[in-house]
Amino acid sequence: MKITLKKSTGSLALLVALGALIAGCNSAEKPQSGASTSPGTTGTTAPTKKAASAAWQLGSEPFSFSVYGHYDWYTMPQWGKDMFSKSVAEAKKLTITSVNSGGNAEAKLNTLIVGGDLPDVIWGDRDKFERLRENGALVPLDPYLDKYPNLKKWAGDEILNMLRAKDGKLYMFPNWYTNKPTGNAGYVVNKKIYNELGKPKLETTDDLYAYLKLVKEKYPAIIPFEPGQAQEGKGVDILYSAFAENNPASFAGTLRAVPKDGKFTSLFADPVYKEAMVYVNKLHREGLITQDALTQTVDQVREKINTGRVAVYADVTAIEYASKGHAQLIKNDPNAGYFMIWPIHKAGLDKNKIMVAHYDRLGWNAAAITTKAKEPEKIFAALDWMTGPEGTRDIIWGPEGTYWKGTDADGLPNLTDKFFAEPEDRTKNMNATNDLQFVGNATLNDKIKVKAELSLPEEKRSWETKYQDAITWKTHMDLTAMRGIEPSQDSEEGIIRERWIELYKKVRGQAILAKSEQEVGEIIAKGEKDAQSLGVQKLHDYLTKKWKENEAKMKKK
Fold first, then answer.
1. Alpha carbons 287 and 62: distance in angstroms, whole number
2. Per-residue pLDDT tens digits for 447-477
3. Where is the composition biased (Low complexity) (predicted)?
4. Are 191 and 337 in contact (CB under 8 A)?
5. Model pTM score
6. Are strands 94-99 and 357-359 parallel, antiparallel or unpaired?
7. CA 5, 117, 433, 234: dihedral to nearest 10 degrees?
8. How far lies 389's CA from each of 84, 161, 251, 258, in Å?
9. For helices 536-555 and 492-513, what crossing angle results, to 10°?
10. CB 312 within 8 A of CB 188
């Protein structure tokens, strides 16, 4: 479960609201100056030796806590309503209540802060927690790591050290962290069209261009190349990865800077970026790419994919959308559907060194326990159980006896006949807890997924896992040390960054729509001058410093 979100605004309002929260706390709720909140308590009262020595067991007594998901789109499903969470609720005497955003996460969080009514757990993007931490609203998790060992065991020191705050303490419990490649980016091809055109070679950028021209000639109603929402990069950034080795789309779409010789350098000064944009522009000028790529919605992209109206589709979330389109198409025609190809590369490059995108061992987002929680240690114990083998099996794969029974030597569940015999019901039940997986363990869960797939005959294996295992996990690059390096929005570098992002998107759009190759070069050259005027070098220096600090953190034991 991975969703790309726009960076929310309102940091000033959040700062003011946090000030109101801290000012309004009574002495029992407010940490003393220079002291962190003690584990297992609210306030600064030290835990007793007895409490510190005995680990609390989830299921030993009824326990409940609240969770607020800090996303406009997120509404938490009712805990205990579906088959899987109902089983956990009963077996572990656990209740999780929701605090929903109501479609406006920033306003909702401000309301909770000002009213002094924070939930027990906040779940959201990692860059949203620092202001809360600075104002004493989060509980440090370090005292629990050895007592409840799943997170420390599965995440490891490198990941946990990367998540530590400026004070050296850990406040975030990561979600979907991993020690192996992950990712869904790449190129998807319409199977029926490809077969009808004689299965031509589709490996290099020249091959792709020739194929798209052939599609346009033979199938005028079909979109030759679908890049998704190009205003957010998507397939346009994927094409950038084709023009250099170890050059993931993330350098353009996420970092907007190119690491060279140990430091970040200007994207617009990168000859590879110019070459890629000249190629994209040529596709657009010749009608080989979606003509409304800069304005289309997600729903429009999905509709085209689901109805088979694209010949080649590239995106950073290609598997997520194409798998659903594939399932739709083969219902009516078993010869239809989609397949993935090894990433396209410029002729002369080593195809095995083409990295389409990045993966981040830190995973997606995180959960944090607030100082409003009366029993933070018990909450941590519950989260730690969820991220461990038993919790992963019970919440994601269901209660023992339904789709699995017993485990193998590696602790992975042995799948039952029911798992294979009832795919539709199984998928429905498993999907029901997708939005209840707050502290997912991708390392463990992917092992279970692969085991499940290998247990099936090839024709019955899931489209997603087949191509993840064969292609996408092998063509994503580890950029963990370059994650979480963004400056705060209200800092000088943060203000530069926001202006730079606006300029970058503007220049990218202009380059795609340019009337000639020469104009593409002129647009990018002007963009570079404007970027330097904004002070982008100062931003690059800041990002480089944070990148190197992260590398040092990851090496620390």
1. 62
2. 998 888 888 877 777 898 889 989 999 999 9
3. 33-48
4. yes
5. 0.76
6. unpaired
7. 0
8. 15, 23, 35, 39
9. 110
10. yes
